[in-house]
Amino acid sequence: MPYVHNTLERLRKSSPAQTEFYQAAEEVLECLRPLFERSPYYHDHSIIERIVEPERQIMFRVCWTDDAGRVRVNKGYRVQFNSALGPYKGGLRFHPSVTSGIIKFLGFEQIFKNALTGLPIGGGKGGSDFDPKGKSDAEIMRFCQSFMTELYRYIGPTTDVPAGDIGVGAREIGYLYGQYKRLTGRYEGVLTGKGLNWGGSIGRKEATGYGAVYFAQNMLEARGDSIKGKTCLVSGAGNVAIYTIEKLYEVGAKPVTCSDSRGTLHDPRGVDLALLKELKEVKRTSLEAYLEQHTEASYTPVDDYPTDGHAVWRIEGDVAFPCATQNELTEADAETLLGNGVTCISEGANMPSTAAAVDRFLAARIAYGPGKAANAGGVATSQLEMAQNSSMQQWPLQKVDARLKEIMANIYKQCADTAEEFGEPNNLVLGANIAGFRKVADAMIDQGAV
């Protein structure tokens, strides 16, 4: 189909050196081929040419002062990708790997993820190449205040509502919100992931991890299986990984791994959740400290990882939850996972599997939940936080968790039904991309050439 190829070639020329963005766009557009063949009017309205271009890209300098009094400079980004379904919604990532291409890939994925939730939110993403690791609370506060001083004029509760992502947790959201309030004089739901005593939603920090487990449950139950009793592999050690592990214990599974930027932890008896939370949420230290209390566990430093993959995926298990970062799971990792008997993968991170790895999972016909579907629980609960802010209420955990479970079941059904409709019943990648795209594209057509 020449216009898919032409669109991708045009992107490579107009947005050079944005590899992750090309990867995300190619995955979506290739999955849409059967839809375009059946419904040519999407081509007639130039939807793909429009949907791959952000409505707005904001880039800015962030100057802040470190504890030694030296002025430091970082880059800041906000990509407001698509507002056909509602205000832009997507996290802020503070990490040295952040570039304009990374933010565009994340924002592009966010469009379809948000559409799958069925909630009125568009897609956006933002962040900075600032690294919170090793910084004092005062330095992080000064950086966040400077970042918000540049961003505040472009966001608002009915315009663009950022949330957290890698490197942006409750502490950073608090500093960002305080500066927004200082600059605007308004107390409103402009950020999600806020503290529980000043507008946050109970269950928000747990939502992405919980949702990934709920999605895995739906995939397994559709195959007459259950997650109960399964040995589970989890990567990452941030919010998503921690609360994936917490929910796995609640549903009777056994998570045995997690990882951080320094290495991979394996505890065959099951990860000590309380200790993990202490190390990562309180002390903010390396997972290697886990061994001080659990000598039966093992820790593999990054330097000892296989050259063609990640140590966490070389451990035997039944279900895998990639919850760290993009492209962490390679084709070699996929081969190892399949060889070890893994039958279900639910992605808690954004695009954590390379294109070649995804191809292997689809060819093996295992239960594979792509990130734009499996990790949508976080943004869905962010929208529930927006709803609570609008009505000046705070819902109990039972209500939030019940809504999250319902939303994840609906996302799975949309993906599965759409895959069935297009003759590939086990291909949830195709199902997620077509289902999300149709919802956004139809709204774009309704709203005219804007």
UniProtKB/TrEMBL annotation:
Mind telling me which GO cellular component terms the entry cites? cytosol
Q: For this UniProt record, give its keywords in alphabetical order, as a comma-separated list.
A: NAD, Nucleotide-binding, Oxidoreductase
Q: Which GO terms describe its molecular function?
A: glutamate dehydrogenase (NADP+) activity; nucleotide binding
Family matches, as Gene3D superfamilies = Glutamate Dehydrogenase, chain A, domain 3 (1.10.285.10), Leucine Dehydrogenase, chain A, domain 1 (3.40.50.10860), NAD(P)-binding Rossmann-like Domain (3.40.50.720)
Q: Where is this site: Important for catalysis?
A: 165
Q: Which InterPro entries does the record match to this protein? A: Aminoacid_DH-like_N_sf, Glu/Leu/Phe/Val/Trp_DH, Glu/Leu/Phe/Val/Trp_DH_C, Glu/Leu/Phe/Val/Trp_DH_dimer, Glu/Leu/Phe/Val_DH_AS, Glu_DH, Glu_Leu_Phe_Val_DH, NAD(P)-bd_dom_sf
Q: Which reaction does it catalyse?
A: L-glutamate + NADP(+) + H2O = 2-oxoglutarate + NH4(+) + NADPH + H(+)
Q: Which residues form the active site?
A: 125
Annotated residues for binding of NAD(+): 208, 239
PROSITE patterns with a match to the protein in the record: GLFV_DEHYDROGENASE (PS00074)
Where on this chain does substrate bind?
89, 110, 113, 164, 382
Which Pfam families does the protein's record reference?
Answer: ELFV_dehydrog, ELFV_dehydrog_N
Q: Name one GO biological process term.
A: glutamate biosynthetic process
Q: What does this protein do?
A: Catalyzes the reversible oxidative deamination of glutamate to alpha-ketoglutarate and ammonia.
Annotated family: Belongs to the Glu/Leu/Phe/Val dehydrogenases family.
Output the PANTHER family linked to this UniProt entry.
NADP-SPECIFIC GLUTAMATE DEHYDROGENASE 1-RELATED
Q: How does it assemble?
A: Homohexamer.
Any idea what this protein is called? Glutamate dehydrogenase
Organism annotation = Thiohalocapsa marina
